[in-house]
Write a structure and sequence with these properties.
7-stranded beta/alpha barrel, five-stranded mixed beta sheet
């Protein structure tokens, strides 16, 4: 019996307001509350609420036969609390069914694993507490920001007690191997790894409404036929994607919700696949091999590397300047300082500084609220300059 693992990333950053040079030292509030509320409500109405209802209906229809998993960043939950409590309640209803697994991640959707394991662990523990507070569960599986993974990151996650981790099935790592098996960490084989099948995931997430795609339109029968064409020895298909795929990236008019509603029935009717959570797969399957990932990978862009966030001098300077403050911040007992420290680490701020305009350029343009990467950099560094002034007040 083969299985499908449906996992969705749920994240919204706190977007920064336009912060000018003359604001430095005078204005210590950094966020665009109007934009943050408007975007959250828009995405709630277009994506979160209708998609959650679709999944709740499917679970009620199919019971234990249909299961999914989410990771929800701490900064997204903070915004649910502020702007969309109805969304938070709808996620709670899903988790209460017992058919939905919540994964662990960094609270701020940060890149801390690349700079400070101390901060990395602190954010993971903060996120664990937030998930326990709202959902009453303790995550067993870890998902790092943007599926960033390396051998060393995996070893650290294993030492924190997690049973498994999900990451990208990158071609340059797998070579001839298939992502449709369970693997394990090269340093500590106790940590099991689920790898994203990026082709089938991206067929839904990116190509679904593309009229130029040779496979358009994508029907559930066609998708299940692709699942059936996979070698019967391959045990699982991990479909990982942004939750905003439904209703936001792929608008309702594309038929994405009808596809989602019909998919489980097509799977059960025309294949021998089941649906499983990551924890179930980790418990029931055995790794076929170690995966060696000496340098970090991610699920971003064609390269599946870190260059979406740390690929140019602007990003590197902002990133290094931010984390140079860590030793000072950890000595300060000020809730406002700590809140800003967390929110300034969110990976989106560095993503906005990306200068890649190649095959993935449209993706970077679509998500970027700034006119240019340089504007994003200047705005961020102005805010960071004010943050440093605030830190210097503490002796």
């Amino acid at each position: 019996m083969r299985t499908i693992c449906f996992y969705f990333q749920v994240h919204q950053p706190f977007r920064l307001k336009r912060y000018k040079f003359f604001d430095i030292g005078n204005d210590h509030y950094y966020y665009n509350d109007f934009e943050n509320r408007n975007i959250m409500r828009k995405v709630a109405e277009k994506c979160y609420l209708p998609t959650n209802q679709v999944f709740l209906d499917l679970i009620q229809e199919y019971g234990d036969r249909f299961k999914i998993a989410y990771s929800i960043s701490g900064v997204a939950i903070d915004q649910f609390e502020m702007y969309a409590p109805d969304v938070l309640e709808s996620f709670k209803r899903l988790v209460a069914t017992g058919n939905v697994e919540i994964l662990s991640e960094t609270y701020a959707h940060s890149l801390s694993a690349l700079k400070s394991y101390e901060e990395f662990e602190c954010q993971i523990n903060m996120h664990r507490q937030k998930i326990k507070e709202h959902f009453g569960v303790e995550p067993k599986i870890f998902r790092n920001t943007e599926l960033i993974y390396s051998d060393q990151i995996g070893e650290y996650i294993s030492n924190m007690g997690f049973k498994g981790m999900i990451t990208e099935g990158a071609k340059h790592i797998l070579g001839w191997k298939s992502p449709n098996y369970l693997y394990c960490n090269a340093i500590n084989p106790k940590l099991k790894l689920l790898l994203k099948n990026f082709k089938l995931s991206d067929d839904i997430a990116f190509r679904f409404s593309n009229h130029a795609w040779e496979e358009f339109p994508l029907t559930t029968e066609k998708f299940v036929s692709w699942l059936n064409a996979i070698d019967p020895k391959e045990e699982m298909v991990n479909l990982f994607m942004d939750y905003e795929t439904f209703g936001e990236h792929q608008w309702e008019e594309t038929g994405i919700f009808e596809f989602l509603k019909a998919l489980p029935d097509a799977v059960f009717r025309y294949s021998n696949y089941t649906f499983s959570t990551p924890s179930e797969i980790v418990e029931n399957a055995e790794p076929v091999a170690k995966i060696h990932v000496p340098y970090p990978i991610s699920w971003a862009d064609e390269e599946r590397d870190l260059t979406a966030w740390l690929g140019n001098e602007l990003q590197d300077e902002a990133f290094n300047n931010l984390y140079s403050l860590y030793d000072k911040v950890k000595e300060i007992n000020d809730p406002e300082i700590w809140k800003d420290w967390l929110y300034l680490q969110t990976s989106d701020h560095f993503y906005y500084m990306c200068t890649k305009w190649f095959s993935d350029g449209d993706v970077h343009k679509y998500f970027n609220p700034y006119e240019s990467p340089y504007e994003a950099f200047v705005n961020y560094m102005n805010i960071l300059s004010d943050f440093i002034i605030r830190l210097k007040k503490y002796k």
